[in-house]
Design a protein that fits this description.
By secondary structure, this protein is mainly alpha-helical. The chain contains seven helices and no strands. The chain has one domain. The protein starts with 9 loop residues before the first helix and ends in a 14-residue tail after the last helix. Pfam families: Frag1. It comes from Heliornis fulica. It is found in: Endomembrane system. Keywords: Membrane, Transmembrane, Transmembrane helix.
């Protein structure tokens, strides 16, 4: 079905479906194995112990790669649109791409360095991934408004901005409440110390993560306008 999509719309569609599967599969395995409680664990908690840790690490690294490809195509698309419309500075487009790539690097760090093995590096990667991701989708939402009405509808822009606002709002308590947790563990149960901080922070983390997924879902229609061309030049001496 992905291959039947016009243009390169299959790229964000694959990113969305693969990332969703990464979260859901690792969560289901971790719960069935008894490694985490079913009620809102951290996303990283569902990929800490084997066998789910291997699946989580592999799939999140692929998601990071798909994210890089998606963001680069988005960058090229805006550059091409900007040639005739001049709705945004090229430097802003480059800055947005760099921020997005930083988020993908953060995802790679999260996938590579397990939460219980190297917690400090893991936490830095998570902060970079979520922080850069929130900034990226906010910048993309602003640029989408600037491209209206020629390249985007106001309906799509409103959706993107709504997702950005919700993600920004959720990001703040995610960091604040996580910083109040005094221990590193994955098997949280209601009633124990710091559980409330963990629960609120985890809910916000899932909100931000799926905010990213729904945001990239809105790229599918834009990417239908993009086609890949392969040119071959033969030089004869």
């Amino acid at each position: 079905m992905l291959c039947c999509m016009p243009g390169v719309a299959f790229v964000p569609a694959l990113l969305v479906s693969w990332s969703s599967a990464a979260f859901i599969i690792s969560y289901v395995i971790a719960v069935l194995a008894g490694h985490v409680e079913p009620l809102v664990p951290y996303i990283s908690d569902t990929g800490t112990k084997p066998p789910e840790s291997g699946i989580f690490g592999f799939m999140i690294n692929i998601s990071a790669l798909l994210g890089v490809i998606t963001m680069y195509i988005r960058y090229l698309l805006i550059e091409k649109q900007n040639e005739s419309s001049h709705f945004v500075r090229s430097s802003c487009n480059i800055f947005s791409l760099c921020i997005g790539l930083m988020g993908c690097i953060g995802m790679g760090i999260v996938a590579t360095f397990q939460e219980l093995s190297v917690p400090s590096v893991h936490d830095i990667g998570a902060l970079v991934a979520f922080g850069s991701g929130v900034v990226y989708i906010t910048l993309q939402s602003i640029m989408s408004y600037k491209s209206c009405p020629r390249w985007n509808t106001y309906f799509v822009c409103h959706i993107r901005m709504a997702i950005s606002v919700i993600s920004c709002i959720a990001f703040i308590p995610m960091i604040v409440f996580a910083s109040q947790i005094s221990m590193t563990k994955i098997d949280w149960t209601p009633g124990e110390k710091d559980y409330t901080y963990h629960f609120v922070s985890a809910v916000c983390e899932w909100t931000v993560a799926f905010g990213f997924i729904f945001f990239f879902l809105t790229f599918i229609r834009d990417f239908q306008r993009v086609s890949l061309r392969i040119s071959t030049e033969i030089h004869e001496d």
